[in-house]
From TrEMBL:
Molecular function GO labels: aspartic-type endopeptidase activity; methyltransferase activity
Protein name (Swiss-Prot/TrEMBL): Prepilin leader peptidase/N-methyltransferase
Bilayer topology term: Multi-pass membrane protein
Lineage per the UniProt record: Bacteria, Pseudomonadati, Pseudomonadota, Acidithiobacillia, Acidithiobacillales
InterPro entries found in the cross-reference section: Peptidase_A24A_bac (IPR014032), Prepilin_IV_endopep_pep (IPR000045), Prepilin_pept_A24_N (IPR010627), Prepilin_peptidase/N-MTase (IPR050882)
Alphabetized Gene3D superfamilies for the sequence: 1.20.120.1220
Length: 266
């Protein structure tokens, strides 16, 4: 493929990412409220004003409207354009890392699902079954379909199946031990299903490294909260750190593995 054609492909994927980001905003807002993600069409949450096409362009409309609803003037949260931009940016990183391969398709879908889950967990402290369960199933089907269509899967079907068992099982074990020791629930059931889902997509090997990255990054953030005097009872969502770990493992498994082994050896 020529350089020009590659640039066009990258641009299209960045634009697709912006559009998907706009859809993820709907998912993040509606799924925790048990609302349909299709009906009704996009509208202002304050006054119900239905968005016309020009008010529904990712990022651009928010800038044109100066962050306010055209009808009632209420503020539109900056989370909306931010998630659109982030989705576009991460999609670009994925294609930059994987190139135009068959695996790009599942990698983009996985990225978007992780983003939606991380945002929902940050806002509501929940990881909805409506996303984790189908996400887990799709990961298994994807890697299972590699039997018929080699090249589309991310890992072997067996690694994926073990990934679900070990992903769900290892956190279940941790949660049980923590509960026995402290009498408090440290993790929600959603975290277990999310790590099971990551195992379904990336295989059992990635589960351990995901958990390592999540514990490390989550631990650092928790420490910074403690140092700034926030209460011990502050319930920190773990899902965003699991999602971060899973996404990094999707794109840089070798670098992370050798970094981890290096840490162990030193
Ligand atoms: Zn409005």
């Amino acid at each position: 493929m020529t350089q020009d054609a590659m640039s066009v492909a990258y641009l299209l994927i960045a634009l697709l990412g912006l559009l998907i980001g706009s859809f993820l905003n709907v998912v993040v807002h509606r799924v925790p409220r048990h609302e349909s993600i299709i009906h009704p069409a996009s509208h202002c949450p304050h006054c119900g004003h239905l968005l016309r096409p020009w008010e529904n362009i990712p990022v651009l409309s928010w800038l044109l409207l100066r962050g306010r609803c055209h009808a009632c003037g209420n503020a539109i949260a900056w989370r909306y354009p931010a998630l659109e931009l982030l989705t576009g940016l991460l999609s670009l990183v994925v294609v930059g890392q994987l190139g135009l391969t068959w695996q790009l398709i599942p990698a983009l879908v996985f990225t978007w699902v992780l983003l939606a889950l991380a945002m929902i967990d940050l806002e509501t402290q929940l990881l909805p079954d409506r996303i984790t369960k189908p996400g887990l199933l799709i990961g298994l089907l994807l890697n299972g379909s590699a039997l018929l269509w080699p090249g589309i899967g991310l890992v072997t079907p067996l690694d994926a199946l073990l990934g679900v068992c070990i992903g769900y099982g290892s956190l279940w074990l941790l949660a049980t031990v923590y509960y026995r020791a402290t009498g408090r629930h440290g993790m929600g059931g959603g975290d277990l299903k999310l790590l099971g889902m990551i195992g379904a997509w990336l295989g059992w090997q990635a589960v351990f490294l995901t958990l390592f990255i999540a514990a490390l990054s989550g631990g650092l953030v928790a420490l910074s909260f403690l140092l700034r005097g926030k209460g011990r009872d502050y319930a920190m969502p773990f899902g965003p750190y699991l999602a971060l770990g899973g996404w990094l493992l999707l794109l840089w498994p070798q670098a992370i593995l050798s970094g981890y082994l290096h840490l162990l050896g030193s």
